[in-house]
Amino acid sequence: GQNIDQPTEMTATEGAIVQINCTYQTSGFNGLFWYQQHAGEAPTFLSYNVLDGLEEKGRFSSFLSRSKGYSYLLLKELQMKDSASYLCAVRDGQAGTALIFGKGTTLSVSS
Amino acid sequence: DSGVTQTPKHLITATGQRVTLRCSPRSGDLSVYWYQQSLDQGLQFLIQYYNGEERAKGNILERFSAQQFPDLHSELNLSSLELGDSALYFCASSPQTGDTHYGYTFGSGTRLTVV
Q1: According to the model, what pLDDT value does residue B1 have?
Q2: Could you read off the pLDDT of A28-68 as tens digits, one per residue?
Q3: Confidence grade of residue A26 (pLDDT, cut at 50, 70, 90)
Q4: Chain B within 8 Å of A95 (Cβ-Cβ)?
Q5: Would an 8 Å CB–CB cutoff place A60 in contact with chain B?
Q6: Preceding peptide of B8 cis, ω within 30°
Q7: What are phi and psi of B20, to 5 degrees?
Q8: Cα-only R_g, chain A
Q9: Would the CB atoms of B58 and A97 count as touching at under 8 Å?
Q10: Which of A70, A95, A73 is nearest to B98 (CA)?
Q11: How far are the Cα atoms of A17, A71, A87 from residue A20, in angstroms, in the given order?
Q12: Residue B98 contacts A where some CB pair is shorter than 8 Å
């Protein structure tokens, strides 16, 4: 089976940097994804890591360590619109190619 | 518009009833995934279809079933509905099984309320 853990809630202020951690246990790892979801809306794709290291995309970066079963999403220059849930998901070969999601981290950005 | 279309957007029905949720994947995508999202459980994977065939099952109840048609649209059937089935149901699609590095595309969801 799979187990994905991430903090339930985080708070930060505008302009700051925040790091959202995700740890996972899976038997057939085949990629880690980060999604952003605003309340009541569809999740939208942020990043994908399959090899160890850092992937940077604008204000967002994602890091993966496969040996540690660990990833983080780094958000820089926070804006109010970044207030949302951030979902960590792994693709596990035992679940076809489906993404298995953690429960998400709700980020609140204040001014 | 993500390119994944889900209908209806909202559905209110009574306990014991049966409903069908519909999903049209993004053009060219062969895989369809169904997810249930409730407040306490997060996004739960239900089932995957690839080019008309069932590919993987997650936490799908026996009261629930799905299929993918030759035109690649998919339907999720929920029967003997219970209050606890109230949730957002999302459909996602991807180009092909086993390969994507740019994520899966989600539809806007169907909000099901069982009263």
Answers
A1: 78
A2: 888 999 999 999 899 999 999 999 999 999 999 999 999 99
A3: confident
A4: yes
A5: no
A6: yes
A7: -125, 125
A8: 13
A9: no
A10: A95
A11: 10, 8, 10
A12: yes
